[in-house]
Amino acid sequence: MHGFVPLAGRTATTAAWMLADQLSVVARTPGELVSMLARDARRTVIVLPDLHAADDPGAVTELALALLDVGHVRLIVEMRSGSTETEYERLTTVRSAVMDLDETRWTDQERYAERAAEPRPVAADADTVDEELLDLDDPAAVCAADPWRVSTLYERSGDGHGGLRAAWLRAGASLTREQERADRAVVLLAALGDDADPRLPQALASLTEGAPWRVIWRRVRGDIAPPWTGPTRALAAGRGPLAGQLVVADHQGTIRLLRSEDAVPVGRLSAPVPLPTALAAHPDGTVTTVDAQGRPHTQRGAPTASGTGLSALLGGGATPLEQLLDDVRAYARKLTVTALASADRVLAVADGAGAVHAFTENGADPHTATLHRGPVTALAALDLQLAEGGGTVPVLYSGGMDGTVRAWAPHADPMASPVLSRPCAVTALAVAATEGGPVLATAWADGLVEHRALDSDTVRRFRPGIHVNAVVLTPAEQMIVGTDETLVCLRLA
Fold first, then answer.
1. Which residues of 293-325 are buried (b: 16+ CB within 10 A; e: fewer)?
2. pLDDT in the model for residue 326
3. Where are the alpha helices (DSSP H) in 74-161?
4. What is the mean pLDDT of residues 223-252?
5. What is this structure's pTM?
6. Most buried among 117, 120, 265, 341, using CB within 10 Å?
7. 3-state SS class at 250
């Protein structure tokens, strides 16, 4: 049994959130959950008791039937006879085995009689009590209340509640997890659109005292001022001439430049890249993007300037990185590039076979190491400062479909053990040197983002409630998280 969701009082949406959490994926809607499970061919067994007591048995039945269409999913559904005839008929007309527990052969009559004789407490009408006492317009009230009940009430409500309803349903997969009120306020604020009641951002910010994060700015689907820039599929911090800017690729391949301080658009690159999966910003202002076929594309995001490290390897050329990038592109014809990373002293690509290929100033032939079982899904690069006067050494962090993060210095043997390991894939990585030491940000397929101080192993966590496609760390010690619905800038409290 891989998933177990008691359906009493649940809607199809809240049932999908609970199942997604148990199955280590993130899904905002029943449809997203079904799509996620369809992409994972492992046999999955899900138990759904009390369908008759669901908030909307018809909608939950639709979810069950959609799950049954996924060939490797098996369901055990319980419902009370006579209470949901339509749903019963719909479920039993598909391939199914029916066990009628009213039949005496399935019942120990003596134990049944003992249980039937036990006194039962009489519960209050939860719907009436909650709707009378819970103010859905009050951010403090909804952050402190039972999140599952809040979710159901927001789904039923036809009112926008000043923007709280849309934000809650957008991030509900995170908000319904067990957590402190302050952490819930951070998530809710990060999902709040600019059409919300203008008093709400400050009200929610005042509730975040004690949480590890502060929301610096947020951009949400539908925002007008500044405009929503579209789903974030890849993200990088600008360097050199692009310092202080974010490089953001959307689902259509448009690559925009945003100010890091407030996400206001300041330009875009001339050529879109179809279905981008990764990008890197180089020290001379050029940007390399990888498309869905694993092909790298490089274009200039700002006028070329002379510099150091990789940007000065060729010296004297109009585009100092051009020859090195040509070497990378030539090598990439031998493989399908799945991830990309760049620092002053290293440029690296990764492939679907678990290997990382690092190009350094020593020449065109890369250092190669097989670090993962299955595809590499994310790469990050850092020029790590050695002891005083010892210079720097390039270090790569790679994340894989195998659920591990590994560190590798290209001139050394790979470490035997992973830096991190979890039972779900890595979706994004970022690494940066800060005044407090190196920091690693890791996004996972279940929606978790971890911010880890590598010198102290101190970890802060954030869950936006939406699948995370990209994460970046800025020199201002901010963490920016990109999803299909939101782009959020956080800073440690």
1. ebebbbebbbebeebebbbbbeeeeebbbeebb
2. 74
3. 85-92, 109-117, 126-133, 139-144, 147-156
4. 93
5. 0.88
6. 341
7. coil
